[in-house]
Amino acid sequence: MQVRHDAGMETTVGPVTGEDGLARCPWAGAGTMRDYHDHEWGRRVHGESAYLERLTLEAFQSGLSWSTILMKRPAFREVFAGFDAEVVATYAAADVERLMGEARIVRNRRKIEAAVTNARATLALRDDGGLERLVLAHAPEDPPAPRTTAEQQTTSPESSALSKELKRRGFAFVGPTTMFALMEATGLFDPHLVGCHRRAH
């Protein structure tokens, strides 16, 4: 999730204290976004389908708000078979057309085709440790500790390396910025601002 684009705020904002007395990253105002911030963002996930889901949704977010993706996530999970790589890898042209007619998701042909491509690439990775192992291998040794949104990164040497390796393995829509967002979302490092109540928890 490229949270700074969602926030629409000045770039020097630090944690904001809510009505419940807890300090949070400034994009986590209320509702769905607050729930995601408090319970999911920056927490480790496990298993191939969990990583494929987040990789897919980060790609679909490009150019959109993360709140839009979260609202559509149940439908994404339904139409992409719970992000079961074995099922999605079998999707053919007719399935792409079916998904292009599915109003509950983001109807972008290139992104839908990329989701199928990435499912097939995920299967190919199984013989070499799998998607989860590959992503985890790119965790930063010196993770960032931003105090304000101005200090937050959108890419890193590790996200660039992960992007390059995934592309080499046949993945699509896995640019360095998208991979940095994936690394934040899956807890490869703690992405919360210093002072946010979720940091280091």
Characterise the protein shown here.
This protein is mainly alpha-helical. The chain has a domain of 140 residues: Hypothetical protein, domain 2 (Endonuclease III, domain 1). Helices cover 50% and strands 2% of the residues. It is built from 10 helices and 2 strands; from the N terminus they run H-E-E-H-H-H-H-H-H-H-H-H. Strands 1-2 form a two-stranded antiparallel ribbon. It starts with a helix and ends in a 16-residue tail after the last helix. About 3% of the residues have low confidence.
**How many E strands?**
2
Helix/strand-derived category reads mainly alpha
Q: Which CATH class of the domain at 46-185? A: Mainly Alpha
Q: Whole-number average pLDDT? A: 94
How does the overall form come out from the CA principal axes?
globular
Low-pLDDT runs:
4-10
CATH topology type of the domain at 46-185: Endonuclease III, domain 1
Task: Give the radius of gyration.
Answer: 17 Å
Fraction of helical residues: 40-55%
Organism: Nocardioides dokdonensis FR1436
EC number: 3.2.2.20
InterPro entries: Adenine_glyco (IPR005019), DNA-3mA_glycosylase (IPR052891), DNA_glycosylase (IPR011257)
GO molecular function: DNA-3-methyladenine glycosylase activity; metal ion binding
